[in-house]
């Protein structure tokens, strides 16, 4: 037989041979509280929250529970284009007309559109993670051009128009934020607004802010002062820098909040209740030629290195490192509203398995640095009136939930305490941070137990950076020291794979319909919900020990819930 043929046969055989992985969970060994980080979401386009599909998806996010879901969005202060924005549903754009001026330069405040956005959140059990941005046209120091059109493939650098510039008056900017916070207080009440997070701008270290670093510090001072003048008990923070620590950017900001002169008050330092930064992966195509596109390869290490760098800086500030920390955008790639050749992962299984593996490593990094990681925010929502499964980074398409949404449903079922767990197939933390997942697949475990000890929830994934066939993992799962005095417990096994919790594979099987029948829509909606691998079963315990056997395909995710 030809040597190349032998090679191909050996590869195919290796892909069909299951890989044995042993997982152990000790229910008596509680490590710490498990932070419910997977309950934060966001998008560039604020107005979609008020659209039919947006309201439906907000309801899904509000139901993730039991912990509160939050939503962060750009463009809450952006000025509408009177020629284009009667229905502002463009990519990477949104507007509210919150601030305009009369012919004498006097401020006109109008929070009507913002109210409809926040009302949509709250009506669906979601709270605002309020971003104070972007610059209203009447306040922009260089307002023209201001509006833009973006189709998902055009040059993203062209979007950074007049809304990204510093204000003509920082005092007017601060007064705008004060009037907005005061309005929210009057509309929603002190207890409600106290439960929100208020942050200043977005990624001021790159083109989203066309001012200097010092000007951003001034922007921050005046915005925070405006919020706190309205509600002294509000929770304020930032700076939402791109790229983790972004060199010395994050450190200089934190030093400013401690030691810099506050431009709004003249005092030393500036209030800071939480710290935020962004982390992004970097997918590419590998082994590509002129005639062969190659295959998609994710890069989890890129995002984890951002996190590692930021945590290192935060840890070094002894008076601040206890504060809540948010990864304010935490994603496998950079641009949710961009279409390109490397976004195939967004519809299928790679996205949820990446998220399960990455979020767990971020929790591990926070533990290593003694950092108070409170949220990892997924920058993905939905776009109304777009084709089904068009490749944008969204959670749902035309009210059909993508597989990615189901991993958040799994996280929502995790319990309050983290348990010690081991997997013979799991990469150690340092390896993933330095080199991502490029050898065998990463078969990992995140285990939890309730405060009362009567319920365990265990997340298991089979992840690899390569969008290629890989062996199934044959899991031998052992629980020890669980459920004292009980001989039988209930097991519910949830699964995301090609045939479970996967509307995308169902849509492919239906022939990729862009005008599905009512029956097909119903089937797609059902396929998009979190599903069980098999009906709930009872499981025998012997001296607090139980064994579970199952196969886990590549890029599949399981959640095992065991309870009395």
Automatic annotation (TrEMBL):
<dbReference type="GO" id="GO:0004553">
    <property type="term" value="F:hydrolase activity, hydrolyzing O-glycosyl compounds"/>
</dbReference>
<dbReference type="GO" id="GO:0005975">
    <property type="term" value="P:carbohydrate metabolic process"/>
</dbReference>
<keyword id="KW-0732">Signal</keyword>
<feature type="active site" description="Proton donor">
    <location>
        <position position="203"/>
    </location>
</feature>
<keyword id="KW-0326">Glycosidase</keyword>
<dbReference type="InterPro" id="IPR049166">
    <property type="entry name" value="GH39_cat"/>
</dbReference>
<dbReference type="InterPro" id="IPR017853">
    <property type="entry name" value="GH"/>
</dbReference>
<keyword id="KW-0378">Hydrolase</keyword>
<protein>
    <submittedName>
        <fullName>Xylan 1,4-beta-xylosidase</fullName>
    </submittedName>
</protein>
<feature type="domain" description="Glycosyl hydrolases family 39 N-terminal catalytic">
    <location>
        <begin position="97"/>
        <end position="527"/>
    </location>
</feature>
<dbReference type="InterPro" id="IPR000514">
    <property type="entry name" value="Glyco_hydro_39"/>
</dbReference>
<comment type="similarity">
    <text>Belongs to the glycosyl hydrolase 39 family.</text>
</comment>
<dbReference type="Pfam" id="PF01229">
    <property type="entry name" value="Glyco_hydro_39"/>
</dbReference>
<feature type="signal peptide">
    <location>
        <begin position="1"/>
        <end position="18"/>
    </location>
</feature>
<dbReference type="InterPro" id="IPR051923">
    <property type="entry name" value="Glycosyl_Hydrolase_39"/>
</dbReference>
